[in-house]
Automatic annotation (TrEMBL):
Enzyme class: transferase
GO molecular function: nucleic acid binding; RNA-directed DNA polymerase activity
Gene3D superfamilies: 1.10.340.70, Ribonuclease H-like superfamily/Ribonuclease H (3.30.420.10)
Occurrences of domain Integrase catalytic (ranges): 104-190
EC numbers on record: 2.7.7.49
Source organism of this protein record: Araneus ventricosus
UniProt cross-references to InterPro entries, sorted A to Z: Integrase_cat-core, Integrase_H2C2, Retrovirus_Pol_polyprotein, RNaseH-like_sf, RNaseH_sf
UniProt record, GO biological process: DNA integration
Protein name per UniProt: RNA-directed DNA polymerase
Length: 190
């Protein structure tokens, strides 16, 4: 480490707690990784600047972590946002979704849930889960069209039989006319 004497002199103001090896000095600034270490006497000023746009706690922390550092910066940001009248007044609390409990199926393959996961390594995955046994089937797919989704479901249904109920979200593959026809022709509720 360069400039040990200078770093030790600043140790008190930054509360480095004996972790000097993780710090460097460039152009008179102490860096923690790529972030500038802010001395105690300037932390309030930096907090005020970070908080100017009233970004909210998550964005403010993310922005701060990209450029500046001091011990307990997260706690200081949380306190600043919680104590800001404008932030608390205009804070958007996401609406609480009503919890819907599914009745436990009495037998395997009575009710299945399907959805897509990905992309992972340029593939999407059709996930099919039996609500009774928690049996999981996974179909890797390059394209997630309604036609390809129905092909995967036909393969699954040929192995395990038709379910009584299919739980789906509002993905375009599941809301299409072709998918609705497939469900009706197989007498599957959804």
């Amino acid at each position: 480490m360069k400039n040990w004497a200078q770093l030790r002199a600043l140790r008190e103001g930054l509360n480095l707690q004996g972790r000097e090896a993780q710090y460097t000095i460039e152009d008179g600034c102490i860096l923690y990784g790529q972030r500038v270490c802010i001395p105690k006497k300037y932390q309030k000023n930096v907090l005020d600047e970070l908080h100017t746009g009233h970004l909210g706690m998550v964005k403010m922390k993310s922005f701060a972590r990209s450029f500046v550092y001091w011990k307990d910066i997260d706690k200081d940001i949380e306190d600043a946002v919680r104590n800001c009248v404008d932030c608390t007044r205009h804070k958007t609390d996401p609406a609480k979704a009503k919890v819907h409990y599914w009745e436990y199926p009495s037998m395997p393959w009575e009710c299945i849930h399907i959805d897509f996961a990905g992309p992972i390594f340029e593939h999407m995955f059709l996930l099919i889960v039996d609500a009774h046994s928690k049996w999981l089937q996974v179909y890797p797919m390059k394209v997630t069209t309604t036609k390809k989704t129905i092909e995967c479901l036909r393969d699954s249904f040929a192995r395990f039989g038709l379910p009584w109920v299919l739980v789906i979200d509002n993905g375009s593959q599941f809301t299409s006319y072709e998918f609705q026809r497939f469900m009706q022709s197989n007498s599957i509720k959804h």
